[in-house]
């Protein structure tokens, strides 16, 4: 045995750090690489307990099965006061719960704009004073009310909401209408043009879309998303195909149901490639919510950011949030903006990654790298790496460039902890100063401590 080791050809297995493997490659030494990474720091004990839980395998199969079988349908458009029961002075926002004192610039700007829109203040300074005092003001997370909102995600009573129903499991979820590009409330802008656009959306856009849906019937979002993936979207930062498909579906009904406003409505929708994003977010929310409440399941059912914190929720742990500090995305910046202008990550749009879209589907959207940075190979690598931390492949959401393989879906807290891989998120970047608007787009990683905290709670004896 000793002589064979000394004089025979070595058989080398490399594990972990790449330094030894790279040195052997330079010497043309054959080797077998084992793709192993240490678990997240401090996670080993809780990981052992979670992996040993006899409920885990069955619970996860149930939870992810519900998520993947959801059939989201766009069924209506209604004011938030009617759909969500919002009253005067009540506002929902993106991400885990937060107070005015801890809110970032974009979140504060969006809340100021919502106060002006609702007529609760006559000037920004008055709105800020009222929000700081808290008198007659209630803030809560969108996720606590079956709702999601992009970027700041602020929802007020007079805003019109997309209503999405799950035809398979019976749930309902909501998202506001997309405002378009430029200076918009979701990025913290609140000037006269922002408030004027919101009023037009409430008086014209919302009622026209509601009348059109009543005429043409529910819109099958699962099928539309599946088609858009075949056409180069990933359904978070690229929604060009999905928006076009949506316009094609509803345009005749808009013309028939709202002839006086059809041209301006369709022109507005067609001029905003991200218009479908909000419908896709509600579809993702209702799908993820179908997987909630399965005891013993380690499936992530929400990832969300409020501009200060990044939080996750887990199927087997109820409505508890597990948080860490939101990071600043790394990406491409618009005009003269740079990293010093960027706010930490913000928005509920990570619900798309939660169900296997967005960053998890970047391999379907090679053009996305021109928006968030990197090369086409990076988009493919991002998607393929996510199969290591997910429970399943989506049966309907498929990627042509990967041989029509289903997108990686169903993030497992235990797999994140065991591999050390964090979910890939692609996102817009908001300016840190209220009213700045969008300053870029890029990629961001969630804080590891959110996942280790959830793992600890799952493994708590």
Number of strands: 18
Q: Mind telling me the C-alpha Rg? A: 23 Å
Strand order of the largest sheet: 6-8-7-3-9
Whole-number mean pLDDT? 94
Can you summarize the main beta sheet? Answer: 5 strands, mixed
Structural class: alpha+beta
| Coarse shape | globular
State the separation between the terminal residues, measured CA to CA.
48 Å
Helix percentage range? 25-40%
Strand content: 15-25%
Per DSSP, the total helix count is 17
Low-confidence stretches: none
Strands, helices and their partners?
Elements: H1 2-7, E1 12-15, H2 19-26, E2 31-34, H3 44-52, H4 56-69, E3 72-79, H5 80-83, E4 90-93, H6 105-117, H7 124-133, E5 138-141, E6 147-148, E7 160-166, E8 172-176, H8 192-216, E9 219-220, H9 221-230, H10 240-257, H11 262-270, H12 275-289, E10 300-306, E11 309-314, E12 322-325, E13 330-333, E14 346-347, H13 351-354, H14 369-372, H15 376-386, E15 390-399, E16 405-411, H16 413-419, E17 425-430, E18 438-444, H17 448-458
Parallel strand pairs: 1-2, 4-5, 6-8
Antiparallel strand pairs: 3-7, 3-9, 7-8, 10-11, 10-14, 11-12, 13-18, 15-16, 17-18
């Amino acid at each position: 045995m000793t002589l064979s080791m000394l004089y025979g050809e070595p058989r080398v297995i490399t594990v972990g750090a790449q330094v030894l493997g790279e040195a052997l490659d330079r010497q043309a030494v054959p080797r077998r690489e084992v793709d192993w990474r240490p678990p997240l720091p401090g996670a080993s004990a809780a990981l052992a307990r979670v992996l040993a839980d006899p409920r885990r395998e069955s619970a996860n199969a149930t939870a992810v099965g519900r998520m993947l079988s959801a059939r989201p349908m766009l069924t209506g458009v209604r004011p938030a006061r009617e759909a969500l029961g919002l009253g005067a002075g009540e506002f929902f926002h993106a991400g885990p719960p937060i107070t005015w004192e801890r809110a970032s610039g974009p979140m504060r700007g969006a809340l100021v704009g919502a106060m002006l829109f609702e007529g609760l203040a006559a000037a920004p300074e008055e709105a800020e004073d009222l929000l700081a005092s808290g008198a007659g003001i209630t803030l809560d997370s969108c996720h606590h009310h079956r709702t999601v909102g992009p970027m700041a995600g602020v929802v007020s009573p007079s805003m019109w909401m997309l209503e999405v129903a799950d035809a398979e499991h019976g749930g309902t979820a909501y998202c506001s209408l997309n405002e378009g590009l430029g200076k918009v409330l979701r990025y913290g802008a609140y000037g006269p043009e922002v408030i004027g656009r919101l009023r037009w959306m409430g008086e014209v856009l919302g009622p026209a879309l509601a009348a059109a849906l009543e005429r043409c019937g529910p819109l099958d979002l699962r099928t539309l998303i599946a088609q858009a993936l075949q056409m180069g979207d990933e359904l978070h930062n690229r929604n060009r195909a999905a928006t076009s498909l949506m316009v094609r579906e509803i345009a005749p009904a808009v013309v028939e149901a709202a002839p006086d406003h059809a041209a301006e409505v369709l022109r507005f929708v067609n001029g905003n490639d991200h218009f479908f994003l909000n419908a896709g977010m509600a579809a993702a929310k209702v799908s993820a919510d179908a997987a909630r409440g399965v005891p013993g399941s380690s499936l992530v059912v929400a990832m969300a950011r409020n501009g200060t914190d990044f939080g996750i929720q887990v199927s087997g742990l109820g409505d508890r949030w597990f948080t860490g500090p939101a990071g600043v995305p790394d990406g491409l910046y618009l005009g003269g903006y740079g990293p010093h202008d960027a706010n930490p990550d913000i928005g509920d749009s990570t619900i798309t990654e939660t169900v296997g879209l967005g960053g998890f589907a970047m391999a379907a959207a090679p053009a996305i790298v021109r928006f968030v940075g990197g090369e086409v190979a990076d988009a493919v690598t991002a998607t393929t790496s996510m199969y290591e931390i997910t429970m399943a492949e989506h049966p309907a959401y498929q990627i042509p460039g990967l041989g029509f393989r289903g997108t990686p879906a169903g993030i497992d807290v235990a797999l994140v902890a065991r591999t050390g891989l964090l979910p890939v998120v692609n996102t817009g970047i908001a300016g840190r100063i209220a009213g700045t608007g969008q300053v870029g787009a890029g990629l961001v990683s969630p804080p590891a401590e959110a996942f280790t905290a959830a793992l600890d709670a799952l493994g708590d004896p």
